[in-house]
Write a structure and sequence with these properties.
The chain has 78 residues and is mostly helical. It is built from two helices and no strands. Keywords: Membrane, Transmembrane, Transmembrane helix.
Length: 78
């Protein structure tokens, strides 16, 4: 039995990069939808995110969903 270490290294590298990328996208989505705390001296309410932040969050979540859907497709179709 022979192990192709180069192929194993490539699979590990791609898996690591995709995992970090999806987690980063999801983090961007969470940050884009979170409320910003009020500044000291202002009223006690938190401010809602702007339209740009919300749009970026929706795009980030859509990309995460697309990546997960593609992964499920690869598993089921194969």
């Amino acid at each position: 039995m022979s192990i192709d270490w180069a192929a194993l290294g490539q699979v590990f590298g791609v898996s690591l990069a995709v995992t970090v990328g999806i987690v980063g996208l999801f983090t961007v989505g969470i940050v884009g939808t979170s409320r910003k705390p009020a500044v000291e001296g202002d009223t006690a309410t938190a401010t809602a995110p702007g339209a740009g932040a919300r749009t970026g969050a929706v795009v980030a979540f859509a990309l995460c969903a697309a990546a997960v859907s593609y992964g499920i497709y690869l598993i089921v179709a194969g």
